[in-house]
Amino acid sequence: MSQFKFSIKTRNNRWLVIPILLVSLALLAWSDANFIVPLKNLSETSKGNDFGVFWTASRTIWQGENPYDSGQGGIFYNIWMGTGGTTYDVFISPYYLTAIFMPLAVFPLGISVTLWLLLSQLLMASALVFILKSSQPEYNPLWLLQGLGIILIWRYTFLVMMGGNISLLLLFAMATSYYFSFNKRPFTAGLFCGLLILKPQTVFLIVPLLLLVPSSSQNRKGKRLA
Prior knowledge:
Helix content is 69%, strand content 0%. It has twelve helices and no strands.
């Protein structure tokens, strides 16, 4: 009965969803900028901050230069040191990875870091939604809140957000691919599965497992019919 009342209330107040979402995103961005970002000085490039490397490489490309040319006096070096960075790093990731960060590279590093944190957190929440929808016959929003609470207090998740890497993006790609594959939408599943190429070393482990999802869901369907 409580779930029924929740669904009715949601339908009657659907117009509140967008304002509440916008306010929530604004509060999240504010907390990121004022509490999470300053903890590790993410607005300055430094070793251990993957986002700083991605941002610098993308900004170098915007200026028509090679991001792998990181010698002193080059564009990459000047951009890196121009943020106040001290410890120096180089870009060794696949070139196409910068395509994700090119839109963010037009902003100053501090703003870009906050936007990336916000995007990562949204991807993390979306991944949890797809996981819950795939594993439970009925979706309960309270499970989402409980799951987010558990994830956010997990030390590794916090370190991922501090490090600015793409782990949460890869989690989103895996969960989304699994969900659409489980629901017999292979082309959409393949599209999201393709995002894993951003981290080539994950492909050889994760993709074979994701390819097992259609047969697994088919076997489960057969058991239900039996």
